[in-house]
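Session log. Operator J.P. requested a structure for one protein chain; no other inputs attached. Running the standard single-chain path with token output.
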Amino acid sequence: MGSDAPSRARHLGAGWLPARSLRSSRDNLAGALAGAGALLLPVAMFLPWYRDADADGGTLVAWGGYWFVIAEMLVLFLIGAGLALGVLAGRPLGGPAVHVVIGFAFLVTITVVIALFIVRPGGNAATVVAFGGYVALAANGMIKGGTILMAVNARKQMASGPAPA
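Structure written below.
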């Protein structure tokens, strides 16, 4: 009975055995990228995105722009935070959900580029682009890059098979 207890405890997942992390260093990098982008995105939304083209030089932040850009950025912030927390919890996102997140991040990129350079609030002659939109694009790229790394890591893990017990 004494020798049977450790094998039984190992089978039942006893707390005294050190648990091996399911995270790889590649997942940590992906989570760090997504987390950094998620932290940077709300900051970017408070930075000036547009400046008046005339002499007074007033600025406009993302909150004063298009409502759909604001909604997409907030959803992307929540996704990025969820990706980072998932990696920290040892459960990185995988499967078709990764592809949906990558697609959504590309959609946000296209929408922000259109809002920054093609159809600016107040008209293209009345406003010029300030630096906040560029920071938002960088944050979006970080979240998208972290998600792409998660997709690559999931594919590599599927190709190599399950981890040894």
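Operator note: The CA atoms of residues 19 and 66 lie 48 Å apart.
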